[in-house]
Amino acid sequence: MFREMRRKRQALSGEEISSVLYRGTSGVLALAGDDDYPYAVPVSYVYDGEKIFFHCAKSGHKLDAIQQNGKVSFCVIDQDKIVPEKYTSYFRSVIAFGRVEVIKDEKEKRTAIEKLAVKYAPEDTAVGRKNAIEREWLPLCMLKMSIDHITGKEAVELIKEKE
Q1: CB atoms < 10 A from the CB of 155, how many?
Q2: Which of 4, 58, 63, 150 has its CA 20 to 30 A from that of 45?
Q3: Predicted pLDDT of residue 6
Q4: Dist CA 147 CA 158 (whole Å)
Q5: Sign of torsion, CA 37 28 9 79?
């Protein structure tokens, strides 16, 4: 169902893929948009080792697309160092394919936004995070991506640095 990576030597291990997802702060969520145009939108996210969570407003292009077709891909670029003298870049990235759904259960929604809050405001107190979440709770929508397939790839030059 999913294509095999052509350059298998450049594939990231499962551990490396997880590391990229844990340390990343943003990615691009790609959905099937209006009139069959792809819709790719930059988003903040949190990865918990199994699923990827996003926040959004309770209405808009993203939610409309998800309601029509929950199949998505999500890309995180971990590194992209341009090397002009070699006409290349030393890159590392991850692409996840899966399905996104709106979290309807209030407890699950609270858990997901707390994970996001800890990631983006790790120095805040539990009380500070709770207050911030409460302020934004009513207009908040949380999305959960279940991963069906995931790949990661890096430049040959980065592989050589590790060897």
Answers
A1: 19
A2: 4
A3: 87
A4: 26
A5: positive
Residues recorded for the chain: 163
Output 156 or 152, whichever has higher pLDDT. Answer: 152
User: What helix, strand, coil percent values describe the chain, rounded to 5?
Assistant: 35, 40, 20
Given a contact cutoff of 8 angstroms between Cβ atoms, the answer to whether 87 and 103 are in contact is no
pTM over 0.90: yes
| Start-to-end C-alpha separation, the chain | 33
What's the chain's Rg over C-alpha atoms? 17
Cβ contact 17:150 at 8 Å: yes
Residue partners of 83: CB distance under 8 A and separation at least 6 = 89, 90, 157
Distance CA 91, CA 109 (A): 34
From the list 89, 70, 88, 87, the residue with the least C-alpha distance to 79 is 89
For 70-123, write each residue's pLDDT tens digit.
999 999 999 999 999 999 999 999 999 999 999 999 999 999 999 999 999 999
- Alpha-carbon gap, residue 26 to 42, rounded angstroms: 7
Measured over all CA atoms, what is the biggest interatomic distance in the chain, rounded to whole angstroms? 53
